[in-house]
User: What shape does this take?
Amino acid sequence: MASKLGGSLNFSSRAKIALWLALVAVGVCGRLWQPAYNVTPLAAIGLAAGSLFGISLAAAAVPIVALVISNMVLPGYGSTIMTLVVYGSFACPVLFGSLVKRQGWIAVVGGSLASSLIFFITSNFATWALSELYPHTLAGLTTCYVAALPFYRWMPVGDVVWSVLLFAVLVAVGRIQQLVQPVQAIPVTTGHSQTVDRLTEEQRGPQ
Assistant: This one.
């Protein structure tokens, strides 16, 4: 299953540009549609960006740009440090994206759950450290995390659902692209022409 998923995520440079824009659009629209319960596609687009572009600035820019655009409408975070924490936590799924091609759907689900947990831990730790809402003690930190649980309970569900749906679409698009790729005629040593599918080296396998 992992190899099939990885083979379906090979896109041309032109297609990747379109996918980059599409991922940002999904992130913006999904976040504006339902921000209240943290059921957003931000982890999903980070995972997808990491699987398509690797660990790179192009990949990290996908969730960051989506956040910047959507934050023009949604309330801010109150401080520069909190903003950096939130942006950094939503960029973390990019790091897990590289596992998707090797591990397949297990990495999609596991990466989305890990992304939810990272956001929960980092954002609430920053809330405890930067605000006066809770005492700056271990008991205060524990109280902060407990108080945040109702806001967290739907986030893992949303991250998994968004991630599975998004990767299902990407796999479908990748397979359609493989089917519609033009056939190329190449010469062989006999002097005749032979038609072969224009496949990648990975798809051809050992010769």
In short: Residues 191-196, 198-203 have pLDDT under 50 and may be disordered. The chain has one domain: 2-204. The domain at 2-204 is CATH 1.10.1760 (Arp2/3 complex 21 kDa subunit ARPC3). The two ends are 23 Å apart (CA to CA).
